[in-house]
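Posting for a labmate who doesn't have an account.
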Amino acid sequence: MGWFRFLLGKKEQQNEQGEKAGQLLGDSLDISQREARLRELALSADLTENIQLLTGLYGNSADLVVRTFQLGSTRIPGAIFCFEGMFDRDSLEDILRALEIDARKIPEKLPRDRGLLEAVKEQLLPTHEVREASSVEEICRSISSGQTALLLAGQDRALLCETRGLDTRAISEPASETTIRGPRDGFVENLITNISLIRRRLRTPNLWTESFTLGSLTRTPVFLIYIKGLVSEELLAEIRSRLERIKMDGVLESGQMEEYIQDVPLTIFPLVFRTEKPDRVISCLLEGKAAIITDGTPFVLVLPAQFIKMLEAPDDYYEGFPVGTLTRWLRFFSYLTSILLPGIYVAVVNFHQELIPTTLLLRITATREGLPFPVVAEALMMEFAFEVLREAGIRLPRAIGPAISIVGALVLGEAAIRAGIVSPVMIIVVALTAIASFTVPVFSIGISARILRFIFIGLGGAFGLFGIQMGIILGLIHLCSLRSFGIPYFSPIGPLIWSDWKDTFIRMYWWGMTTRPKLLGFREPWRAKAGQRPGPRWSREEEND
């Protein structure tokens, strides 16, 4: 009687599975309902049913590869599933050769019970990365990522074989982060390749990674990478909680996650640092930060972000102390120039003519004679025209984009002067502002300067230099109030941390930077041994004495 109930329950379970599978093959369910039903499905012991189920789930897609075979001398039916263009052909051919040819060379018969899968793994596929799965959802997720599913008759489980072989872009120097001296490799769109670029330089077992899957439909792999024992555990817990809180249908680029995990959404300053260069990520990890690597994009997110670090370039650290410090000062000055120069010009011409030398004031007045627009409208109009040209140069094909933007700027400026719409001095101011903006090494912080430029033009035109002063004070207050994963965004300036200034406005000698940033590397503050100042051997011995 008990055996009869068992068979009856098994039959009812199979009927229920068949009913759920039939609903998935129909057109009545929405995407959320289909995803919920898919999670409830499991494989059956009937190979024909499993083939019909998996092919039906993908709507008999043309790129779904289904290959049937017979295993061993006992001719056990089987089938493999994979997607065209997502697997490595050599790996797949090795698996098929082992299943169809090598299986016949084994003298003993392969078992037909539940030990069959273990025998296949241990005797036929010992050199391949293979794991078992019984969930239909897990099987679909695996073959959609480039793996191969192996199904056998009489088995309600499948073997998932690692055969991923996606074609990826070659490793090259990032176009947005060019350097004169330093490594020239950059991240690509493949997650595993990006992690390997970091591990090649950080050869320590304390480089840990944690995996997340984001997007209910894309199921995008995301890795959190950090140096265990160096990064703060509180920071890691906060990053994990923010990643796990993301619930959306698809993650195509790290920029989508960036908006979910930043501390303050209403700010023009980037609170997450992104880069394409492995050496920049590694330098941040050595300071006690963490990084998020997303599959399908070369941009890696570094957490937490600091405003000052976004104005620094890798060349600062690969050149000597004088050169690195001088170029850093030049970059800071250029960033402020790109924000304040048009606003200061408008304020001085409108309200503070006494600050201009008499000869220069007379020339400016002469060039502005007969112009139809006030200086504020003139500045806004030319800045807007330049932003349009900049955007057009980015979107046009690379072969003609720079040429069109440069020629367009020259022709437009010359035509505007001849037509009496703007003054030559305004053209010079806009050109200097544009050149200064190109020195910013991080694109996201450069966008904030472009927005602030228009704000300061309005403040200078309305209130003069007092408006510029008020804007600077409000901007500094805003920067000091921002946080990136709990770390002050404007540190080490606000709050003031003197020990970190050796890598802020100046780039101290490497032998002088013996400690990590105070707010990030407090678990292991010393990064280099003190007293390594170079010099002759006899002078070092005298200092030690």
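Reply:
Got it, the structure tokens are right above this. Residues 1-11 have pLDDT under 50 and may be disordered.
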